[in-house]
Amino acid sequence: MAHGFHDGPRSLQDRFDTRALADRIDELLVRDTVSEGDRAFIEARDMFFLATADADGRPTCSYKGGEPGFVRVLDPHTLVFPNYDGNGMYLSTGNMLVNADVGLLFIDFERGHRMRLEGTASIDLDDPLQEEFPEAQFVVRVRTRAVYPNCPRYIHRYQLVRRSRFVPRAGCLTPVPEWKRSDWALDALPAHDPARHPGERDVLGR
Predict the structure, then answer these.
(1) Adjacent-strand bridge partners of 134
(2) How far apart, in whole angstroms, are the C-alpha atoms of residue 21 and residue 161?
(3) Cα(149)–Cα(26) distance, rounded to whole angstroms?
(4) Which of 40, 99, 132, 163 is the most exposed place for a label (fewest CB within 10 A)?
(5) What is the dihedral of CA 116, 120, 126, 129, to 10 degrees?
(6) Residue 9 predicted with pLDDT over 70
(7) Strands 176-177 and 203-204, how do they pair?
(8) Burial (CB count <10 Å: 0-12, 13-18, 19+), residue 184
């Protein structure tokens, strides 16, 4: 089995009589590779949720957004995504350095589909793929362990209004987030942060 259910899920499966169903799903739908259909779904997404935990198992979950295709499937076992400038805390990616196990959740809110992917993350600050993502600080590679669809029944339907104007794009200046210009933040910014001296960059609240 892909998951090798431990006592936690087994106890609830037995309590609610879903052990046979769980085993069937695990046997038939869970793979350790990304199929061509999975690849098309993943690379069409403009966001996903990322779950990580530190060395003591304390979890965090973060949202990652970009242009469609910012998550790339390199081969059936490997995907990659960029890390853009954020709030400077590096909670998710910092966790990867001490606990490489990660979970990714991809959702299509317009059509009501979702996919889970679990694997092992790695960060190489000299990864040659970094040059292919404008303004990426580094890229993250994930070696897949389990890839499987997830029940779509509770997905609320949303339509895209607009994509974030902060997503880096080749050939244009990325706006500065307004919060970085706040008194409490400005003097703590890295020396090279464009928010210190925005110049021709727009300063936007969101």
Answers:
(1) none
(2) 38
(3) 11
(4) 40
(5) -30
(6) yes
(7) parallel
(8) exposed
Nearest alpha-carbon partner for 51 in 125, 144, 116, 141: 116
For 17: left if phi > 0, alpha if psi spans -120 to 50, otherwise beta; the answer is left
Q: State the pTM of this model.
A: 0.94
**Among candidate residues 64, 91, 87, 94, the one with its CA nearest the CA of residue 189:** 87
Minimal CA–CA distance to 76: which of 45, 115, 117, 112? Answer: 117
Q: For tokens 């081969």, name the residue.
A: 75
Q: How far apart are the first and last CA of the chain?
A: 44
| Dist CA 169 CA 133 (whole Å) | 8
Structure tokens at 70: 């910012």
Q: Are 147 and 25 in contact (CB under 8 A)?
A: no
* CA pair distance 123, 97, nearest whole angstrom: 8
SS3 139: strand
Average pLDDT of the chain is: 96
Residue 21 DSSP code: H
Query: Tell me, what amino acid is at 110?
Result: E
Q: Which residue has the tokens 């994930």?
A: 142
CA distance 115 to 152: 9
Amino acid symbol at 201: R
Structure tokens at 107: 């959702």
pLDDT at position 1 over 70: no
